[in-house]
Amino acid sequence: MARSILITDIAHFVGGPSARALLAEGARIYGVDASFADAAARAAFETKIPGVKALSAQDPREAVAAVLEAEGRLDVLINNDAWPAMRGPVDEATDKDLHETFEALVFKSFAMTRAAVPQMKKQRAGKILFLSSAAPLNGIPNYSIYAAARGAANSLALTLAKELAPSNIQVNALAFNFIESPDYFPASLLENPKSRDKILSNIPLGRLGKPEEAAAIVAFLAGPTSDFITGQLIPVAGGWATAR
């Protein structure tokens, strides 16, 4: 039976590459994105990645309900939360910056997870992935809000893994950094030799990670051969960060 998978912010970060990798394995992919409130945006994405069903739902409960109506079950939830890595000294940060970042990277994934868990408990099986960041593992000066929010999401994943294990639900987090993505490394930045060299100097492997490499790990953790893996925060950052 084909797995039914729901990916959030699918038009951003590693949502598209992950969808392609999972489609290649025969999964049925549903995606939500803020842009999908517009019918033209949904149609464009479905044309871009054939096989994905772009959902208009913006409310987590409605998104999960749409998958259940179509498939009768939800096997995997991928919280692919994307938000700008806002830079600035802590004494210049605003409450608005703090609230918006936590809304995007913590509250949204919590709400989506809360909506998905009842069905996963009912079917006695499920997987939840948080596609997060390695920033909290090393700490990055002047990125306090972003690192704090990603750290909260990482901790949420580790805690939920223990809470949901008795229901045969595996929860893991991937701590990404230095993955090629226009959301975090726009072409204008990488095409500047000085900027690119500065970025690469921080990465022990000396290069950015490919979206396809990130997607392959997502596909593994979303698949049946990872059923005994839960409660893991896995850095995918070219050696820049290690799990603690």
Descriptive account of the structure:
The chain is of the alpha/beta class. It has one domain (4-236): NAD(P)-binding Rossmann-like Domain (Rossmann fold, 3-Layer(aba) Sandwich), CATH 3.40.50.720. Helices cover 45% and strands 14% of the residues. It is built from nine helices and seven strands; from the N terminus they run βαβαβαβαβααβαααβ. The chain has a seven-stranded parallel β-sheet, sandwiched between helices. The longest helix has 29 residues, at 95-123. It is globular, with a radius of gyration of 17 Å.
Count of helix runs: 9
Percentage of residues in strands: 5-15%
Task: Report the C-alpha radius of gyration, rounded.
Answer: 17 Å
- Oligomer, anyone? single chain
Q: Largest sheet, order of strands side by side?
A: 3-2-1-4-5-6-7
User: Class, according to the CATH hierarchy?
Assistant: Alpha Beta
What's the story with the biggest beta sheet? 7 strands, parallel
What is the total number of structural domains? 1
Shape-level CATH architecture: 3-Layer(aba) Sandwich
> What is the helix content?
40-55%
Give the mean pLDDT: 95
How would you name the CATH homologous superfamily? NAD(P)-binding Rossmann-like Domain
Structural class, from helix and strand content? alpha/beta
Helix/strand order, N-terminal first: EHEHEHEHEHHEHHHE
The best one-word shape is: globular
Q: What separation lies between the terminal Cα atoms?
A: 37 Å
List low-confidence stretches.
Answer: none
Quickly list its features.
244 residues; alpha/beta; Rossmann fold; 9 helices; 45% helix; Short-chain dehydrogenase/reductase SDR
